[in-house]
Amino acid sequence: MRVTIYNEGVHEAQEGSVTQRLYPQGMHGAIAAGIAPLLPDAVIRHAQLTDPSHGLTPEVLAETDVLLWWGHEAHDRVDDAVVDAVIARVHEGMGFLPLHSAHYSKPFKRLMGTTCSLKWRNDNDRELVWTVNPTHPIAAGVPSPIIIEGQEMYGEHFDIPEPDDLIFISSFSGGEVFRSGATFTRGLGKIFYFSPGDQEYPVYHHPDVHRVLANGIRWAMPTLPPTTLDAPMALRGWFE
Amino acid sequence: MRVTIYNEGVHEAQEGSVTQRLYPQGMHGAIAAGIAPLLPDAVIRHAQLTDPSHGLTPEVLAETDVLLWWGHEAHDRVDDAVVDAVIARVHEGMGFLPLHSAHYSKPFKRLMGTTCSLKWRNDNDRELVWTVNPTHPIAAGVPSPIIIEGQEMYGEHFDIPEPDDLIFISSFSGGEVFRSGATFTRGLGKIFYFSPGDQEYPVYHHPDVHRVLANGIRWAMPTLPPTTLDAPMALRGWFE
Amino acid sequence: MRVTIYNEGVHEAQEGSVTQRLYPQGMHGAIAAGIAPLLPDAVIRHAQLTDPSHGLTPEVLAETDVLLWWGHEAHDRVDDAVVDAVIARVHEGMGFLPLHSAHYSKPFKRLMGTTCSLKWRNDNDRELVWTVNPTHPIAAGVPSPIIIEGQEMYGEHFDIPEPDDLIFISSFSGGEVFRSGATFTRGLGKIFYFSPGDQEYPVYHHPDVHRVLANGIRWAMPTLPPTTLDAPMALRGWFE
Amino acid sequence: MRVTIYNEGVHEAQEGSVTQRLYPQGMHGAIAAGIAPLLPDAVIRHAQLTDPSHGLTPEVLAETDVLLWWGHEAHDRVDDAVVDAVIARVHEGMGFLPLHSAHYSKPFKRLMGTTCSLKWRNDNDRELVWTVNPTHPIAAGVPSPIIIEGQEMYGEHFDIPEPDDLIFISSFSGGEVFRSGATFTRGLGKIFYFSPGDQEYPVYHHPDVHRVLANGIRWAMPTLPPTTLDAPMALRGWFE
To answer: Which residues of D touch C145 (CB under 8 A)?
Structure first.
């Protein structure tokens, strides 16, 4: 199980930022520390915006079973060639977990085909994450609700395609609701979007969030060898 | 457009009840008065528990395009033969709108095949009804959110099959969420479950609720002549 | 992994029947022999119509993780109390695999809420079973198409609710198509309907069919302890 | 109802081609002639590759409620700026009907986020188009099956996201199956993919195909004014 966490790393690099204070090892570091005990068979690596190819070289992608993606400030600075390569790997079977503000990342928008727009408010709302699909593997061992004391609000309407499975719905103290955990399939790749998590709140230290992410990674693991999907001519009776 | 509203009528019959005060014409009367201007081509009739066959004789059902169902106290007093006839008509194409506590009505439970269980609290929560499917005909002209100042709380997990379309998600001031508007197809019948509405709150006087119900009725209208679905033997090449 | 195969056993009991010749150990015996090597951790038992409680006593059901159901001639002879118990166990989390003509069995019809009607023809059609959801665990290791040289035709329109996941679509030499592998969730129970298999064709000796059934059983395993779903009152702030 | 049919027009321009013989008015002409009597309130116009902006100028797109798209040879010659404009209009609410080989068109691939790959064979298969969703408005008045005497084969696996609604499944005389009619929502735009139709077969003269396309256009009509979906900050209590 080879996991790569892309974290753009922009907020962490700002001296004196709340992100730096909350996440001295980076958000990716907090995520890695949280999921590692739950995925003892996983090798976890880190990629960031300032690495060559943002750390997502063809070699790294070829060796990645599941890619987590955290981005916010620097969506536009991600190279389209890297995005193309990520999309191609998802189509081949790589799992993909876009996190929180990655709703507006290039790979997620291209895989969804929608605007991925939503409402938001950075005002320390309490978020409650309710399970609506209790038998889904991603919900295993997750309390309903997860209680997140402070968090950015993300609200409907969230412009995404109808999910394969809707697993979590959040409410916020301001009254908004949000489809906060949802799965999709694109090509042979399984995608799990999960919104809780923000650079200004300690959400990535929350053990229930670690559980959800670990479950999501395990669920998104490829089940087939990497396969390029193309459009072959099929002779009559080719299967006989 | 022939609409029948089944309302068990138990709460309204209790002298001095809050229901009697809120709904002097009955909840069915408030619903009928609210939707009539929005469905000028509709003939609306009323059926209740104490009528012979609960008002749902074969003749009435045969002349009903869409059946609304409000029940709460008297689910168990509904005759199974009437339930069978309602189910048969849904399978033939009749539209069906179970309302609020009808989540536990016999016809809805049988059409869903699940327990239809949920959490609840009668404590004057504010309910906000958010649209998550803005292009669905049932959402046309409906503000997001609908604001319902006082209402019983219905919360997840709501044990229903995955809906064909999830249209509304509610939040409550206590923090719970609920899939409050959802569609299903059973046989040739279209079903729209809508939870806002209660015998102790004036929800059925709310103009946005009238709009949703009118939209739901129009959406659930049969599109085919009544047809009994059976399992015919089909000779090879029967379609040629 | 505790698997129970209910096979009514009526066709096998008819002296000189084609079923007896094709399945000297019964269809359940052929299924058990086929899946056992693929599910080495499974304990497989058999239940039949003529057993007390059709072999599905409360004790047996309590000890069953996944129930397979084959029925055809004797749907109506299945005791409603046993059906109630099966449904209750599915709602609690037991997996359920209705096979072929079990589309018309009492438990499947009640869990679906539809008529479950379809077209059919017993005329030795070749059935090709195509995978349309290649990353689903039930499709793992299954060729597309599975080639079944002779089989009863089942054709659309198949009156089922929209499946959670549509995995297989079959074509028949007569030109018909059928949604032959589909999943549903009811309560906490996972359901997989798979149509290939008939008492007059040797389909249950087909290794690809064994693979699908073994995958389906593994997929339908309960992930939570048995839980009765009910409708509790939830005090404000109960989760804090 | 303002309908625009984009037809690249490459096959029709080849002197002596089978397309020219089958479709002296172009495939768009055959489609327009077929749907016009079924959509008496429609204004139908035509756009083609060799027009400035392929006939899809901002003005034309702004005046288009539903866009049909036929392309095959010249997918790569479609200007990305035009594709961007089409996508933006779909997100704003314009209906979109990609036809047959438009599975590989730029707009469809971008709206789906998948490879849109499939199997194919140009060998005069008979295609049978079966309805699996008989109450969907797109199936109204459509026989099941539609019989298309000669047609290119399109077969699974078709790499598309799980459709909102699967309406038609085709079989071919070679035994393959294909999800030939499926709907999607992207932004506020409704999308209906329909595969029957080819430049070398007279499918666009088939009255049942006309019926499906007319139904699809009516279904895909925008229900809201054109709206740009963006991500506004929402002050606490903004809705009160």
So the answer is: 175
